[in-house]
Every structure is written in structure tokens, then in C-alpha cells.
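Q: Hi! First time doing this. I have a protein sequence and I read that you can turn it into a structure. Is that right? Here it is:
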Amino acid sequence: MTASYIAELNVARLKYDIDDPQVAGFVNNLDRVNAAAERSEGFVWRLKEQAGDYSVVVDDDPRIIPNLSVWENVESLENFVFKTIHKRIYERRAEWFGVMEKMHFVMWPVEIGHKPALEEAWDRLSYLNAHGSSDRAFGWDHVPTANLWRSARCETSAA
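A: Yes, that's right. Below is the predicted 3D structure, encoded as C-alpha cells:
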């Protein structure tokens, strides 16, 4: 078996435009959250766009905010998501983000050294939505050792 890391894509849709004061609490914390990710044990890489960390446009919708990163393992990703500043921002998600109609988070194995493109990540998310969890594309529930997400999963109020 080839050694691998875990890639993740998380997609959310802002309720307001990125420059609207109503999402300032999110925007003003992006650098802090991204810096925390980059300092986290097990962090490998994250998608950055030349114009800014939040300006990658998905499906021609500037309110769609994708987060694409690679981690050494699921445990490292889970610890970042639920045991750092990210958790405090995540808990406020209903203030800034609307409800997503489909799954908006996906993980999949990638070869060490591979940096997935947003298109690849989007394909994995589409696969998860069409076929459910498998080794090709999965959510937290597909990882038996992941438990922190159970108390923090998304409600019907926001993604």
C-alpha cells in the first residue's frame, strides 16, 4: 500500500458578501485561523489564492468559501478543527453561513507530496454526495477513530 496523507475540502456559503460588515467576525479571523492551521501538528499544505485566502470563486458564486488542505492523518485534522481557535469560529458559523443543501465536507487519501486542485476536491465532494462514504470520499463518520466531531457537527441552522 502506498503511503498517504488526507486531503479535506470544506465548503460554506456566506449569508452576505465578503466585504459586508455582518461577516467581519469571520473575515477578521481568517488569518488567525489559517496561521493556527499552519502551526498545527500534522499540517502539510493548504490552498492559497494569490489575491487572498478567501477569494477563490467556486461555481461563479463569490459567497462560496472553499477550504482545501492536506494533513498527515485524520487525527491531526480533527485536533485542529475541534481543539484550536478554529473551534471558536466554527461555533459561530450560523452568524455568517447559510445552510448547505448537500454534504459540504469531504476527506480522501492523497499520495504524499500531492497538492489537490480545487477541481479534484470538488469532484470528491460530488462523489460523496452521489454515492455516500467510501474509501474514495468520506466524512468524519467513515473514520472509526474520529470522535470529536460528534458533539460539534453541523445543525440544520448552518453549514
